[in-house]
Specification:
CATH superfamily of the largest domain: Type I PLP-dependent aspartate aminotransferase-like (Major domain)
Helix content: 25-40%
Catalytic activity: (S)-3-amino-2-methylpropanoate + 2-oxoglutarate = 2-methyl-3-oxopropanoate + L-glutamate; 4-aminobutanoate + 2-oxoglutarate = succinate semialdehyde + L-glutamate
Number of strands: 15
Radius of gyration: 22 Å
Keywords: Aminotransferase, Pyridoxal phosphate, Transferase
Bound molecules: pyridoxal-5'-phosphate
EC number: 2.6.1.19, 2.6.1.22
GO molecular function: (S)-3-amino-2-methylpropionate transaminase activity; 4-aminobutyrate:2-oxoglutarate transaminase activity; identical protein binding; pyridoxal phosphate binding
Cofactor: pyridoxal 5'-phosphate
CATH topology of the largest domain: Aspartate Aminotransferase, domain 2
Strand order of the largest sheet: 4-10-9-8-7-5-6
CATH architecture of the largest domain: 3-Layer(aba) Sandwich
C-alpha cells in the first residue's frame, strides 16, 4: 500500500466514499493484532479501522478505504483535519520552539489565545483565560477557581453529565459504565441534581423545567446548603449523555438561582464550544452568561489545548503559582488554536454549522417518519442526535444503534454513539465536509435504517 503511505491529509484529500477492501482490511487487522498484544484492554475504539490520512469530510484508512467522517474525532476537528491555517501556524511554531513551559519562560501565542477567548465567550464583563491540555484538566481547574473564589467546597452537577475521566471529573460524571465502575472511591463534595431531559421527563416534557428546577432547588437549599456550594457545573447541551438539550428555560432558572446565592455557574462547553452548535458557544442560544466557561475539543483542531475563561475577579482569586502545568498552553497548540479561530471567521463556519445541522435534522426527521425506531431527533447546529427506542415505547434500543453503526462502517461512513443508555446516534461532522459528501453519508444512513 505505498500509494496510501504517500497520502497527505487535509482538504486536498480526494473527497469521496470508497471501499477498496473489506472492513476492516488486512492492514487494519494486522494492526489490531499488534494492538491487542501491546495495549491494555481498557482502551476501546469505536471503529475497527486504523487511520492513515484525514481532511475535508473524509478519513482514509491504512488499507486505502475512504470513509465519510461524521464524528470529527469526537467533536475535535471542527474546522477539518489538517486544516491549512492550523497546519501552517503550528508548523511554523514547531520550527521556532516546541516548548519552554509557560511557567518558566512565557510566550506570546498563549496571550493571543487568551485575548481571543476573552473576546469570544459570552458576556462583556472583564475576563481572564488560563490554558490547559485536556477537557478534564480544564474542569478540574474551573472547580479550583470556584472553590478559591467562594471559599466553599461543594460542586453540583447533573444526571447524564460527562465532565471527564480524572478523579474529580469522573466523580462529576453521571454514568457508571464505562466511566466509573471499579475506579472508586470518588472525590467528595460532588452532588447530583436531575436534568430537565424533555424526552424522558416522567410527567412529560412540558413539566421538565419546573419540576427539575424544584428538585435542584431542594437539593441545594435543603440538602447541601447553598452556603456550601462553590459552583454548579453544567453542559449547555449534554454531550456524552446523548445530546440532551435542557428543557426551555431550565438553565436560565438555575443561573438566576445561583446568582442570588453567590454560587458560580460553570458552563462546560468542552464539546459544544467553538462553533459546533452554530454559535461560538452554546450558552448563547439560551442567553446564558456563565461565570466560568471551559472549552477544549474544537479549540485547537486536534492539538491538545483546553481553556478556562471566566470573570476576572473569580480567576484572580487563585494565588500565584497555584495554577498551571508543565505542558499547559503548549505553543504549537496555541498557534493551532489561532488557526482554528481564524478559519471559523474567514470561512463563515458559524453559518455553515447551522446549515449542516438543518440538513441533518431534515434528513433524520424524514427517516423518523418512516421508522418508529427513532424516538427523538434533537441538538443544535452541527451537533445532532437521534435517540433510538423499541418501536411503540420509549425503551432504549441500544441494539439498533450498534446495528446502524456497523452497517455504516461496512458502507464507508463513520458515526458515533452516545447516551446514558447507549441508544443515541450522534452526528458531529467536520464543518469542512461538502454538501455532496454529507448527502451521500445520509443516503447510507437511510439504507442502514431500512436494513434494521
Ligand atoms: C470530552 C469532554 C470532557 C473531557 O475532555 P477530555 O479532553 O477527554 O479530558 C469534559 N466535558 C465534556 C462536556 C466533554 O465532552
Amino acid at each position: 500500500m505505498t500509494a496510501v503511505q504517500t497520502l497527505a491529509g487535509g482538504p486536498h484529500l480526494e473527497q469521496i466514499r470508497r471501499l477498496v477492501t473489506e472492513v476492516p482490511g488486512p492492514r487494519s487487522r494486522e494492526l489490531a493484532a499488534r494492538r491487542s498484544a501491546a495495549l491494555p484492554a481498557g482502551l476501546a475504539s469505536a471503529a475497527p479501522v486504523y487511520a492513515a490520512a484525514a481532511g475535508g469530510g473524509v478519513l482514509v484508512d491504512v488499507d486505502g478505504n475512504s470513509f465519510i467522517d461524521l464524528g470529527s474525532g469526537i467533536a475535535v476537528t471542527t474546522v477539518g483535519n489538517s486544516a491549512p491555517r492550523v497546519v501552517e501556524r503550528a508548523s511554523r511554531q514547531l520550527e521556532k520552539f516546541t516548548h519552554t513551559c509557560f511557567l518558566a519562560t512565557p510566550y506570546e501565542p498563549y496571550i493571543e489565545v487568551a485575548e481571543a477567548l476573552n473576546r469570544l465567550t459570552p458576556g462583556d464583563h472583564e475576563k481572564r483565560t488560563a490554558l490547559f491540555n485536556t477537557g478534564s484538566e480544564a474542569l478540574e481547574n474551573a472547580v479550583k477557581y470556584a472553590r478559591a473564589a467562594t471559599g466553599r467546597p461543594a460542586v453540583v452537577t447533573f444526571d447524564h453529565a460527562f465532565h471527564g475521566r480524572t478523579l474529580l471529573t469522573m466523580s462529576m460524571t453521571a454514568k457508571n459504565q464505562p466511566y466509573k465502575s471499579t475506579f472508586g472511591p470518588f472525590a467528595p463534595e460532588v452532588y447530583r441534581a436531575p436534568m430537565a431531559y424533555p424526552y424522558r421527563w416522567p410527567s412529560g416534557a412540558e413539566h421538565a423545567t419546573n419540576e427539575a428546577f424544584a428538585q435542584f432547588e431542594l437539593l441545594v437549599d435543603s440538602q447541601v446548603g447553598a452556603d456550601n456550594v462553590a459552583c454548579v457545573v453544567v453542559e449547555p447541551i449534554q454531550g456524552e449523555g446523548g445530546f440532551i438539550v435542557p428543557a426551555d428555560g431550565f438553565l436560565r432558572k438555575v443561573a438566576d438561582f445561583c446568582r442570588a446565592r453567590g454560587i458560580l455557574v460553570v458552563a462546560d462547553e468542552v464539546q459544544t464550544g467553538i462553533a459546533r452548535t452554530g454559535a461560538w458557544f452554546a450558552c448563547e442560544h439560551e442567553g446564558l452568561v456563565p461565570d466560568l466557561i471551559t472549552s477544549a475539543k474544537g479549540l485547537a483542531g486536534g492539538l491538545p489545548l483546553a481553556a478556562v475563561t471566566g470573570r476576572a475577579d473569580v480567576m484572580d482569586a487563585a494565588h500565584a503559582g497555584g495554577i498551571g502545568g508543565t505542558y499547559s498552553g503548549n505553543p504549537a497548540s496555541c498557534e493551532a488554536a489561532l488557526g482554528v479561530l481564524e478559519t471559523i471567521e474567514a470561512e463563515g463556519l458559524l453559518t455553515r454549522a447551522q446549515l449542516i445541522g438543518d440538513f441533518m435534522v431534515r434528513e433524520l426527521r424524514d427517516i423518523a417518519a418512516q421508522t418508529p425506531v427513532i424516538g427523538e431527533v434533537r441538538g443544535r447546529g452541527a451537533m445532532i442526535a437521534a435517540e433510538l427506542v423499541i418501536p411503540g415505547s420509549r425503551t432504549p434500543n441500544r441494539e439498533a444503534v450498534a446495528q446502524i453503526t456497523r452497517f455504516c462502517q461496512l458502507h464507508g461512513v463513520l458515526t458515533l454513539s452516545a447516551g446514558t443508555y447507549g441508544n443515541v446516534l450522534r452526528f458531529l461532522p467536520p464543518l469542512s465536509i461538502s454538501d455532496a459528501l454529507l448527502a451521500d453519508a445520509f443516503a447510507v444512513l437511510r439504507d442502514a435504517f431500512a436494513a434494521l
